[in-house]
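Email to the structure team, subject: peptide-methionine (R)-S-oxide reductase model.

Hi all, the expression group asked for a predicted structure before they design truncation constructs. Nothing fancy, just the tokens so they can compare against earlier work. One-line instruction: predict peptide-methionine (R)-S-oxide reductase, return tokens.
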Amino acid sequence: MEPVRGATPKVVKSDEEWREELTPVEYRVLRQAGTEPAWTGEYTETKTKGVYLCRACGAELFRSDTKFESNCGWPSFYTPSDADHVILREDLSHGARRTEVLCASCHSHLGHVFEGEGYQTPTDQRWCINSVSLRLAPEGR
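Reply from the structure team: attached below.
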């Protein structure tokens, strides 16, 4: 993953440390900007109330009250819990122009954000996030 220009992560670890802490699938998605297969993630269809944290560093990213059913195969949110918790970067891979979403705390890959797709959300955005990039902290626990 290329570094984010002008930003220094709060959580800095060597590649070896990330490999030791993350499973191979988590490492491929979070540190190498991979994508989990559609409809395979543990949070794709969950309705559990709580806060979604970065699986790599534990930073708060999304809240369950902004999650919606987009039927795209990945968890979808209409906004992050705080704009400062994520970094957006242009992604020109795979022959498309997309906006990549990274954790602002550790610069791990989370997914992509899309606009103007016609979803009836307050922001008209779909934050399409890999389940493996997240850890849900259920409400009340």
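The chain is about 10% helix and 30% strand. The beta strands are 50-54, 60-63, 67-68, 76-77, 86-91, 98-103, 109-115, 125-129, 134-138. Ping us if the truncation boundaries need rechecking.
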